[in-house]
Amino acid sequence: MTLVLGKSSQVYYYSGEYGYTEKSEIHLTNFSSTGLRQVLLALSDRTIVQIKPSNEAKYQDMVDVLDEMNITDRKKYAMVDISAAEYDLIKNSRL
After folding, report:
1. What is the spatial distance between Cα 89 and Cα 12, in angstroms, rounded to a whole number?
2. What is the rounded distance in angstroms from the CA atom of residue 71 to the CA atom of residue 37?
3. Helix intervals (H) in the chain
4. Is it the case that residue 95 has pLDDT exceeding 90?
5. Pairing mode, strands 2-5 and 49-53
6. Distance CA 77, CA 44 (A)
7. Cβ count within 10 A of residue 69
8. Are 1 and 42 in contact (CB under 8 A)?
9. What is the arithmetic mean of pLDDT over 15-32?
10. What is the per-residue burial (b if ≥16 Cβ within 10 Å, else e) of 41-67?
11. Which of 1, 29, 47, 57 is deepest in the core (most CB within 10 A)?
12. pLDDT tens column, 56-91
C-alpha cells in the first residue's frame, strides 16, 4: 500500500506499484477517523505501507499519518521519496 500526501491534507492511496499495471486504481481520503484510519484498519497485518510526502504536504500531515500508523497498530511502514509520476498523479488528479 502506498500513501501519497498531497496539499490540503489529502491522502492518495493505491495498492501495488503505480504505473506497472494497466489500471492503477487510485483513491483519495483524508485524515479523519472515517478516512485514512479505516483504510489502514482494512489492511492485512503483513501489508507494508509506503508513505510518500509531496512538496505540497505540510509537516502536520506527516505527524498525522504517523499518528494513524500508531493508532491502527501498523508495524511495517517506511518513509519513501515520491516519484515524478506520482507527483504528476496528484498534481493532475480529478479525484
Report:
1. 9
2. 8
3. 36-41, 59-71, 84-91
4. no
5. parallel
6. 13
7. 18
8. no
9. 76
10. eeeeeeeebbbbbbeebeeebeebbee
11. 57
12. 999 999 999 999 999 999 999 999 999 998 888 888
Average pLDDT over residues 49-58: 95
The domain locations on the chain are 2-91
**Residue whose C-alpha cell is 479523519:** 32
Question: Considering the chain, what is the average pLDDT of its residues?
Answer: 90
Report the alpha-carbon angle 26-21-29, nearest 5.
10
The reported pTM is 0.89
SS3 52: strand
Can you list the positions of beta strands (E) in 1-95? 2-5, 11-14, 27-29, 49-53, 77-79
Q: Which residue has the higher pLDDT, 7 or 19?
A: 7
